[in-house]
């Protein structure tokens, strides 16, 4: 049973990136999470069917939240709060997935990697709940503060050096063999100078992941000013660019497309369709038919909100009846006949997992064509209708008489539906063009 005060707090939470903390008696933190959109994420807990989440909600008395400028900042803040408060339900709700930790090796040119076993390493930062977001963050930071990932030393500069992800000298055999002296005329060949520069990059990444971004930027600005006063303008400009890049990624709230966003998409759709069963597999369908020639169809599959391209399927329309073939004079009727054929052939494959949701390009007639094959009481169906400019305008949902304008949907729903519809269209027309090219190549 969710208390009224907690329910009101959930409904009033802002649609901003940040972290949220469910608290129980004596202000004890029970569960800490992060989200790109706090409102979309936290509303999910009001309708959850997960017994563990229901237990957590029944013990919760209060909800706190902290807004952040970006999802990267939320990821790092969440890590700090989990480490500090050790909320019991974060451990219980891991679903057998271990948290990720960032490891910094202890050597002259330290390496950075992620692990699920922090006890085996001395210098670690974590825990991080989202491995995908963490890896994306490390990739972004590596562009600003390059570091080495080469497993062995080599004679020539590595590829990562040429694309700006490695300082180069850190993995060259010769640089490791040079004696450390302080009287090198050219600093570029001074191993001690190079080592300090490399370690400075590692330290900057460590500070950011440890929640010390503000102090890091302040220190960089101080060094930039000192270099400018000494007349070392190139180095000052290099630092200024690093500061700008750090601030940029922390201001861009949509820079990471990770599992949190996908969870929000799926939970929103599940709520829209009033489904008790979670949406895992979504199938999108479209046909490509220009003047009735070389008609093709496509099925795309999204698993847990992500394109699952190994599951995509192509269909060459066979027109199983003369009636279907005659309908090509009317594009809409022709599309319905082709859709019906595609769905019939698809459901003959009992070895393919059944979808939790079907999305089709079209309107009422296309929706009815799919309903004739797939039972809408078992599998919900959505038809995405476009306007004259071929831009998504509204949707028809199986079992509902009136359409819903896409502009009325939450952005999470709208974006996912349009992405699947667009991917089905791209895949269908791509197959059509391939067949058309093959026909044109055939000798007359």
How is this structure best described in words?
The protein folds into 3 domains: 4-93, GIY-YIG endonuclease (3-Layer(aba) Sandwich); 101-211, no CATH class; 260-441, Nucleotidyltransferase, domain 5 (2-Layer Sandwich). The protein is globular and about 75 Å long. The longest helix has 31 residues, at 411-441. 44% of the residues lie in helices and 18% in strands. The protein has 444 residues and is an alpha+beta fold. The chain is built from 16 helices and 14 strands. Strands 7, 8, 9, 10, 11, 12, 13 and 14 form an 8-stranded mixed beta sheet that branches. Strands 2-1-3 form a 3-stranded antiparallel beta sheet. It has helices at residues 4-12, 38-43, 51-59, 71-85, 88-92, 131-144, 159-162, 173-177, 191-209, 213-229, 233-251, 259-272, 322-326, 331-347, 364-371, 411-441; strands at residues 18-23, 29-35, 62-67, 100-104, 112-115, 124-128, 281-290, 293-303, 306-307, 313-316, 357-361, 381-386, 392-397, 404-405. The termini are far apart.
